[in-house]
UniProtKB/TrEMBL annotation:
Organism classification: Bacteria, Pseudomonadati, Pseudomonadota, Alphaproteobacteria, Geminicoccales
Protein name, entry field: 3'-5' exonuclease
Keywords for the protein's UniProt record, in alphabetical order: Exonuclease, Hydrolase, Nuclease
Transcription regulation listed as a keyword: no
SMART domains xrefs: EXOIII (SM00479)
Stored NCBIfam families: PRK09182.1 (NF006615)
Matching Pfam families: RNase_T (PF00929)
SUPFAM superfamilies noted in UniProt: Ribonuclease H-like (SSF53098)
Domain spans labelled Exonuclease: 58-223
InterPro entries with a match to the protein in the record: Ribonucl_H, RNaseH-like_sf, RNaseH_sf
Amino acid sequence: MTTRPRSPSVRARAALEAMAAKLEASGDYRVLRRITPREWFSTAAAKGDFQRRSEVRTGLILDVETTGLDPRTDAIIELGMIAFEYEPGGTVFRVTGSFSAFQDPGRPIPPEITRLTGITDEMVAGQSIEPIEVAGFAEPASVVIAHNAGFDRRFVERVWDIFRMKAWACSQSGIDWSGEGVEGTKLGYLLAQAGLFHDGHRAAEDCRALLEVLARPLPVSGVTALGSLLAGARQASMRIRAEGSPFDMKDALKARGYRWNDGSDGQPKAWWRDVAEADVEAELTFLRLEIYRRAELDIPVRRLTAFDRYSDRV
């Protein structure tokens, strides 16, 4: 595993920044700057400019490293969390706390996971994450954010009940990155678009990196990424399952944005898609006329909110 270089002095940093600015001014270079952990993002609340302190809320960014991809058979080996204050419109004020801990999975960590994360068997040996500490850290949060919430939520809900009761948002799928002119959604790509980089694939570092992305304005709408994410998370969505759909219609369903569930999670084996409430009738009409070709067919629909979205319970 590589060792992070020592931070330069204030004078050396100023000289480096001048060099970077000169390169960027040429128009032929783009310079990426390493993320430096910071407490304050906006000082409006500190200066008393914010209207009512009661409107400042606590958010939680969460990331886990695991032994694999299946929460039923794989285990968490690291949990990272960053707590931060924000206002409902999406302005990030400051980081209020951080949490990072290892968990011994009780079996060897697969070599490919060690290569990806840098976490070894020796690092987690005998380590455990105390449920009371996790609950105490997460309890104040109004929303939990993960960059792949469909992955992280399924893991942490099985271990710590506090996360079953929280509203969740996914910064990877919950922001219209394409509509903002951003072609990729991986965290490293989003950081590069913002002129940043970090030492990735460790939970706490990924949390801080994501907060840097969320605090910045989006290139087209101009709202912060957090503001866009929260606005979408507040909206209910409808999950439609195309159960028993004809096999020869699978390509049409995939082209429409449906995903296949093989039933291994206890849910029905079917193609499914989440749509906005306003789009439900149009989607049901498409399925009845184009897929099943039965105008009166009853199709399963379930309403989802941030409190159950991305959960195994759905």
